[in-house]
Amino acid sequence: MKKLILLILIALTLIAKETIIVFHAGSLSVPFSQIEKAFEKKYPNYDVIREAAGSRACARKITDLGKKADVMASADYKVIDNLLIPNYTDNNILFATNKMVIAYTPNSKYANEINSQNWPDILLRKGVKVGHSNPNLDPCGYRSILVTKLAEIYYQKPNFYNKLLGYGEYYTNGEENIEKIIVRPKETDLLGLLESGAIDYLYIYKSVAKQHRLKYIELPKQLNLGSKKYANYYKQVSFKITGKKPGTFIVKKGTPMVYGITVLKNAKKGAILFTKFVLSKYGRDIMKKNGQDVIYPAELKIELK
Fold it and tell me: Which InterPro entries does the UniProt entry name for this protein (predicted)?
């Protein structure tokens, strides 16, 4: 009888759980997995369902496909501004930062030679394969392009961007340099290709490189998009990505990278609780443990009540 009552209580608990659907950037997969577990342990009446994709792809799921989500966390807060405000949300909370690096493995071609000064030459060498994510779907993709353009200026290497990527003003389908460049929807999709040797080098966030114990080149602050001090330097370069409507474009200028998180309109009550947990000391400690720099206090554009 006691066992039956216990089973009934467990069943009722499971039935009563409220789901919180969270769309988030691929680069947040590891810390958000740990945040999910910690949140559900503290609040067992909630079930967090996460879906990772490129930040722009996450937004497109909401705007173009009509998918329901309660919370979205983007690797670029401007994705929320550009694609979700005002129709899908009225808030945007700036909560984390990152840096761009060039990741590789001991088996990458010229791994014993590459450093923070010669990496542009290494990447241009014959037979070297390079990966980056799709700039129309993922902020890491257009940041990879911006870093390449900045490198041309910083290292004084005329035409480096065109030699390596050759996309012109905007990215189409990657055929511009198909023998050298591999593109996938989000940066974390390329990790397996790097680890298997299908590509030699990968433009990626420092936090992701650290989480996966990859070797990486620390880029100068003038290139890594991680320093407010060099905001004006970053503005020298820009790249066009697809806009809200087909045939339209958004110009992305180089800026220090800032992550944003938003509670969507008509979200369940637990969405605010989860977002507050991400911003709490629990969430911040998990983020920092995984190599993700945080903004504290977070810059709230609305008050979460």
Answer: ABC_trnspt_W-bd_WtpA (IPR022498), ModA/WtpA (IPR050682)
pLDDT, one tens digit per residue, over 112-133 is: 999 999 999 999 999 999 999 9
Residues 6+ apart with CB under 8 A from 14: none
| φ/ψ of residue 261, rounded to 5 | -130, 140
Strand (E) or helix (H) holding 203: strand 201-205
Residue of 75, 40, 83 whose CA lies nearest to 273: 40
Could you tell me which CATH number the domain at 100-253 has? 3.40.190.10
What's the pLDDT tens digit per position in 200-224? 999 999 999 999 999 999 999 999 9
Distances (CA, A) of 253 to 26, 52, 143, 256: 22, 25, 9, 10
User: For tokens 């919180």, what's the residue?
Assistant: 20
Domain 2-97+258-300 has CATH 3.40.190.10: yes
